[in-house]
Amino acid sequence: MDREILFRGKRLDNGEWVEGGYAEIPAPPVCIGEPGKPTVCIVAPDSRYLPDWGLPYRMAMYEVNPSTVGQYTGLTDKNGKKIFEGDIVRYNDQMDFDIHSVVKIGKYDQDGSDGEYRAAECVGVYFEVLDFTRPDWGKEWGVNPQECNNTVSPLDNDVIGTEVIGNIHDGKDGEEA
After folding, report:
1. Torsion on CA atoms 123, 4, 1, 59, rounded to nearest 10
2. DSSP string covering 64-87, please?
3. How far, in Å, are 8, 60, 102 from residue 64 at the CA level?
4. Which carries the bigger pLDDT value, residue 165 or residue 55?
5. Contacts of residue 44, Cβ cutoff 8 Å, sequence gap at least 6
């Protein structure tokens, strides 16, 4: 397999983000979570390493808030930062709109036709537009936000300079969501 399978979630014990493998334990052992309640965990390398090889010699299981778990999309932003489901990204399109979107994975309609033909049904990673700023010419020409696409493929040529600026759980630039 050529792609990296990775998940991220917010730890319940200290609120920090952790990346690793996803595990859902239907009947958790007594040492983790509440007996009888499903527990969602991220399995990640421990911070201690073997001195000679630099490899993790121990894995740790961190209980995370299930609503914060997001999958890695396989994409990175313009700064090399991994883009996860639930991230908020900022980018410009070819018409110089400054756009903020949330990253999602699933089924969506991709349409750039202004209604001239039926939207294509797609499955995969997409950006759902939260808000945008029109350039001056857009205001003069009467471009309305309601007339613009609300879903965009991150592989679209119109997406320029994508940058992760936050996530739906922490807000933009870490401000409370």
Report:
1. -130
2. B-GGG-EEEEEEE-TTSPEEETTE
3. 9, 12, 21
4. 165
5. 18, 19, 20, 21, 59, 60, 62
